[in-house]
Amino acid sequence: MKKWFNILLVMVSMAIAGQSLAMTIQTAKGEVNIDQPLSNNVAVFELSALDTLSALGVYPKGTPEVVELDYLKPVFEAGTTVGTLFEPDLEKLNALQPEGIIIGGRMSPKYAEISKVAPVFDMTNTGTDIARAQTLLKEYGKLFGKEEQAAELSKKLDLALQQTQDIIKNQGKALMIMVNGNKVASFGVKSRFGYLFNDFGWEPADNNQSDARHGSPVSFEFIRDMDPDWIIVMDRNAAIGAKGESAKAVLDNALLKDIKAFKNNHIIYLDSSSYLASGGYQQMMRELKLLRDAVSQ
């Protein structure tokens, strides 16, 4: 009798343990239930995910083709290439037999196709505010059994954000632009760079409400008429390694030389990670420091 009681006790304990490990992950496509945290045997096709996961100490076995972000070099070296940011290599993906697949906006059109290989977690980050980045950090902590580490990183991000807000406060209006070859686009509060205004504290010079992925096209005359106190620049060509003039060369224009931002040397060039891995923990920390340093000079 005692023997059967002990067996029953073990079975109940195992059931309770299994229940305690089960959890729900919030994704861009709704809730996904998992029985237990994942190991590093996953395929990740989203750079911001690779950024945050590596900060948590998770180096995925499957990664996309190498992207030139120095701080992610160890992640790519530790993984096996299973496609690009836009296209999976199904043969390599199947060979990996991952426990899960993490994607973002670039890979979302392939969701149905790759979900045949393993459960897919769409962790797309819109960029409009830092709350989404914090939510993703928390969800990654749950997904990989790194809740304590995620909570600690979250506190550090909150502190860095507060420090940056204190420095940016009362700095006037900022214009966020992307230079893509000879084309210039402006980004407002509802855009992928909306967090600059909604969270970091810059006052937008351009009040456009567009959420277009590549911004609203603008002219040099537009920038001159805006006459912002600060101009924040993303050089897309530099970020993706494309040929062509640098953003700095394109903005060296007679129409801009007399506006406040240029006169006061208030031009901030964002790191490539702000375009490629936007919303990643390390990317956010790097950008917050870059902005603090630029304003404090």
From TrEMBL:
The keyword Lyase does not apply. It is found in: Cell envelope. GO terms for cellular component: outer membrane-bounded periplasmic space. PROSITE patterns: FE_B12_PBP. Gene3D superfamilies: Nitrogenase molybdenum iron protein domain. Keywords: Ion transport, Iron, Iron transport, Signal, Transport. It holds the Pfam family Peripla_BP_2. Residues 1-22 form the signal peptide. Residues 41-297 form the Fe/B12 periplasmic-binding domain. One of its GO terms (biological process) is iron coordination entity transport. Belongs to the bacterial solute-binding protein 8 family. This is Siderophore ABC transporter substrate-binding protein.
